[in-house]
Inverse folding.
């Protein structure tokens, strides 16, 4: 099997830049928690501080779950005035799934009260919330209780900050970490993680899954004749063609060079063969721009109970190279229910 292509230097620089920005945003989050603590320690001064803070500070009556104070910076975060916000119920400021998270956190905190937990503790939750125009923002909320003279919780003190940028950067970093930079298919490392997970699931619950390995035939000739840039476009076009046939649950990865692996969950060998036939037909009928028709060789197999990952990958690799030796532009798969090794 071919090795995975090296990650371009620019890719490393991009990831390093994103990591630095995420670290900066996380440091700001630490400052947010310190602000909540300072406000709780100096309750008589919190409104003065809140009126001049870039973060949105608020209090909410614990019995009614209605806002009793909202700082002016709510306009910057949510696009609504303090007065408008204070007329809203908690179910009006966040989507149902976020409301569920918030209420579950509140229930857990109230349960902790009965255990003698630290009354000065804070709870941080990141949830999606509505802006005034009903668009969605990610908000980090650092929450604590305000207490009466008997130290009973009577209100919630919240410090809220827009962390949408941090969430987006985190998602971009995650995507960079698991995808091939050229084609957008998953990379080899991520595929191996998903493969091991699916093997465990199959061993526990007897769910079938199958693998398809394919390699573009005579791809070197494409690069030699049309140039590597055109070769890159061919790889991108192939991934696009394959994705149109896959389900959301299937995993497509660039295994190395012009070689790709597909994992089909809850899929028998017969079903995987049918999909491969469709892919072969798609290649026969879809010319690549400025290049023309290309073919690929396919190997197809189904996972066998308790076999090793090396045995599985070596088998599908061998089947694919059998297709190469038999003349390319075809599929070789394991026998189906007593049939001989099949080629098509």
């Amino acid at each position: 099997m071919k090795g995975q292509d090296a990650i371009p230097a620019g890719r490393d620089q991009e990831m390093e830049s994103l990591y630095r920005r995420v670290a900066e945003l996380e440091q700001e989050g630490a400052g947010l928690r310190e602000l909540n603590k300072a406000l709780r320690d100096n309750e008589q001064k919190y409104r003065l501080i809140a009126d001049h803070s870039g973060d949105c500070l608020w209090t909410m009556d614990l019995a009614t779950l209605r806002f009793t104070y909202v700082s002016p910076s709510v306009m910057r975060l949510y696009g609504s005035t303090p007065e408008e916000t204070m007329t809203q119920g908690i179910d009006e400021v966040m989507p149902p799934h976020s409301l569920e998270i918030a209420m579950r956190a509140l229930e857990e905190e109230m349960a902790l009260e009965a255990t003698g937990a630290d009354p000065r503790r804070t709870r941080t939750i990141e949830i999606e919330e509505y802006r005034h125009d009903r668009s969605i923002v990610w908000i980090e909320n650092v929450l604590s209780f305000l207490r009466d003279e008997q130290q009973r919780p009577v209100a919630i003190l919240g410090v809220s900050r827009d962390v949408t940028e941090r969430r987006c950067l985190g998602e971009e970093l995650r995507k960079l970490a698991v995808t091939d930079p050229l084609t957008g298919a998953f990379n080899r490392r991520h595929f191996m993680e998903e493969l091991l997970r699916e093997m465990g699931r199959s061993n526990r619950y007897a769910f079938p899954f199958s693998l398809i390995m394919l390699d573009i035939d005579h791809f070197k000739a494409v690069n030699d004749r049309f140039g590597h840039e055109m070769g890159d476009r061919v790889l991108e076009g192939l991934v696009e063609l394959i994705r149109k046939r896959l389900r959301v649950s299937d995993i497509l990865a660039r295994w190395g060079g012009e070689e790709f692996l597909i994992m089909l969950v809850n899929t028998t060998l017969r079903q995987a063969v049918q999909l491969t036939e469709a892919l072969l037909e798609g290649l026969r009928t879809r010319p690549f721009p400025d290049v023309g028709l290309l073919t690929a060789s396919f190997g197809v197999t189904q996972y066998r109970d308790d076999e090793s990952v090396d045995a599985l990958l070596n088998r599908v690799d061998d089947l694919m190279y059998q297709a190469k030796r038999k003349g390319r532009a075809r599929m070789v798969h394991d026998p189906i229910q007593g049939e001989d090794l099949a080629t098509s």
About this structure: The two ends are 22 Å apart (CA to CA). Residues 172 and 196 are 24 Å apart (CA to CA).
